[in-house]
Amino acid sequence: MIQPLVDPFQRAISYLRVSVTDRCDFRCVYCMSENMTFLPKKELLSLEELDRLCSAFVRLGVRKLRITGGEPLVRRGIMTFFQTMSRHLDSGALDEMTITTNGSQLEKYADDLYAAGLRRINVSLDTLDEAKFAQITRWGRLPQVLRGLDAAQRAGLKVKLNTVALKGFNEEELFTLTAFCADRGMDLTFIEVMPMGDIGNEDRLSQYWALTDLRARLAERFTVTDLPDRTGGPARYVRLEETGQKIGFITPLTHNFCESCNRVRVTCTGEIYTCLGQEGKSDLRAPLRASESDVQLEEAIRAAIALKPRGHDFDYSRQRPDGQMSRHMSHTGG
Ligand code: SAM
Ligand code: SF4
Known about the structure:
- There is one protein chain.
- This protein has 334 residues and is α/β, with parallel strands linked by helices.
- It has a single domain, classed as TIM Barrel, CATH 3.20.20.70.
- It has helices spanning 47-59, 78-90, 106-115, 130-137, 142-155, 174-184, 204-207, 211-221, 285-290, 295-305, 329-332; strands spanning 15-19, 64-68, 96-101, 120-124, 158-165, 187-192, 224-227, 235-240, 245-250, 263-266, 271-273, 281-283.
- Strands 7-8-9-6-5-4-3-2-1-10-11-12 form a twelve-stranded mixed sheet.
- Strand 2, helix 2 and strand 3 (96-101) form a beta-alpha-beta unit.
- Helix 1 runs parallel beside helix 2 and helix 3 runs parallel beside helix 5 (142-155).
- It binds S-adenosylmethionine and iron/sulfur cluster.
- Iron/sulfur cluster binds at residues 24, 26-28, 31-32, 69-71, 102, 124, 330.
């Protein structure tokens, strides 16, 4: 009988997010600086190592796996990883395998993702205005992402949009984005901008648009009903009664969600972060590479979970981005 993963605060760990690359074909202004130095390729876990690592977590009780990055779909050969990992969906060991993507490669891969057992995906999209899209992603092109969304829906994937709420940037698109999702039958989640990594000349506080304000604006036009749904994550949900739409809010700054946190993150180099908002990490690559057996790896995973902190310390209330993390979101995987 395998002991499940339970942290010191009695939270069972059932959700793993894995970053499979730190690279990306976009340079979103809140996520990366324009000139990023990426890791040498040899530092990355190979696709086989990623499979071994994820499979060890599945054995230890992880039921949900999210693949992220960087942009996961720019990792060479990544479809092989999804295809081999789909055995855990077939066996029933995993409830869900999913992905967070910027959508740029979906036109190419949507059918393959569906074939590998993915059913729901998150696509990040902050604006429907082509010029603004180019501005916020620096390198991205909106029509490519829209074609990706079409391909995903055609393939049968349920799509949720993730939109970072950015003051003075997409405030006036609130209702356009909401209607876009309602028309296409997509859920929508807004995310507060988090202080992750050096982003060059951009100023965090000027980007920050509190979701309490966003919600109040939605309530000017819609009847907003709180929903009890919690996924162990930071999102809280409401329903817009007039459209029946479900809208999520990820508010690490205005609400603390840590008490029900069921997740851990692994980077593309095999570091495990048991809290997005703390610097604490442990290395899983050395135990993974130390032997062909997974005994050391499982011990290292358990040891890391035993150090999972109670919660993050993000705080903008003192008019500076307290709790700032030195690493970028693309490093830990958003
Ligand atoms: N490239 C993929 C994408 O954009 O969906 C996956 C990785 S990306 C780091 C994951 C999510 O993190 C995206 O929805 C992105 O908008 C969000 N993100 C990146 N930096 C952020 C920040 N500083 N604060 C809040 N969300 C951030
Ligand atoms: Fe790339 Fe995603 Fe970061 Fe944008 S948010 S730069 S798409 S990793």
